[in-house]
Design brief:
The longest helix has 28 residues. With 209 residues, the protein is an all-alpha fold. A hairpin with a 5-residue loop joins strand 1 and strand 2. It has 8 helices and 2 strands, in the order H-H-H-H-H-H-H-H-E-E.
Length: 209
C-alpha cells in the first residue's frame, strides 16, 4: 500500500510539474531517507537538471497563455513521467507490480494534467493575472506538500492526492464552458501574426481574416 500511495501521489504531482516531482522526490530520498525513491533521482546531476527544468516550468506556469502553451507540450511528457516514476518505484523488474504501478502513475498523471491544464485555460479568459498566478502558486505548494507528506506517510499522501484530483476534476467540469473559451483564446495567441509597419510608420498587428 505504501508503494501504491507514493506512486499515486507522484503521478498526481507529475501531472502538475514532472520535473519538480523528480526533483522533490530526489531531495526526499537523499535527505529524508525515503527508501522508496529510486536511487537515480538522488544523484547530484539529476537533481541539478531537474531543478533547473522545474524552475523554468514554475516560471512559465505564472505567465498567461504561455502556461497553456507549455501545458500543451507537456501533454505527452507528464503522463510518461508518471508512468516511469511508478515503474521505478516498483523496481522496474518487469513483473506485475511494475506494470500496475506504471499504469497507476501514468493514468493519474494524465488525469491530473487534464484538470490542471483545462482549469488554467479557463482562468486565462480572465482579464487579470491574479487568479492565474494564485492557482499556479497553489499547485506548487500542493505538489511540495503532498510529496513531503509521502516521506512520513505514503498512504496518506496518496489519499490527499486523490482528494485533490477529484476536487480539480469538479472545478474542471464546472468551468468547462470557460475551458473551451480559453482553448480558442490560446489558439489565437499561438497563431498571432507578427507586427507590421502601418502607413504612418508605427508598428501594428496584422489583421487576420
Amino acid at each position: 500500500m505504501e508503494l501504491f500511495g507514493l506512486t499515486f501521489a507522484s503521478g498526481w504531482a507529475s501531472g502538475l510539474n514532472a520535473y519538480a516531482t523528480v526533483f522533490v522526490l530526489g531531495l526526499l530520498g537523499r535527505f529524508a531517507h525515503l527508501d522508496q525513491v529510486p536511487p537515480g533521482f538522488q544523484r547530484l546531476d539529476v537533481l541539478v537538471i531537474m531543478g533547473i527544468l522545474g524552475l523554468l516550468e514554475l516560471v512559465a506556469d505564472k505567465i498567461p497563455y504561455l502556461d497553456s502553451a507549455w501545458d500543451s507540450i507537456s501533454t505527452v511528457i507528464r503522463p510518461i513521467a508518471g508512468a516511469v516514476i511508478g515503474a521505478l518505484i516498483a523496481g522496474a523488474s518487469g513483473d506485475l507490480l511494475t506494470i500496475t504501478l506504471a499504469s497507476v502513475g501514468g493514468v493519474t498523471a494524465l488525469l491530473s494534467h487534464i484538470t490542471k491544464s483545462g482549469t488554467r485555460m479557463a482562468l486565462n479568459t480572465s482579464p487579470e493575472p491574479v487568479s492565474n498566478i494564485t492557482h499556479s502558486v497553489a499547485d506548487d505548494l500542493s505538489l511540495v506538500g503532498v510529496l513531503s507528506l509521502a516521506a512520513v506517510s505514503p498512504v496518506l499522501a496518496g489519499v490527499v492526492a486523490a482528494v485533490l484530483l477529484v476536487a480539480g476534476a469538479i472545478i474542471f467540469f464546472y468551468l468547462f464552458a470557460k475551458v473551451r473559451q480559453g482553448f480558442r483564446a490560446i489558439t489565437r495567441w499561438i497563431r498571432r501574426e507578427p507586427a507590421v509597419a502601418t502607413a504612418d510608420g508605427n508598428p501594428d498587428r496584422a489583421v487576420r481574416s
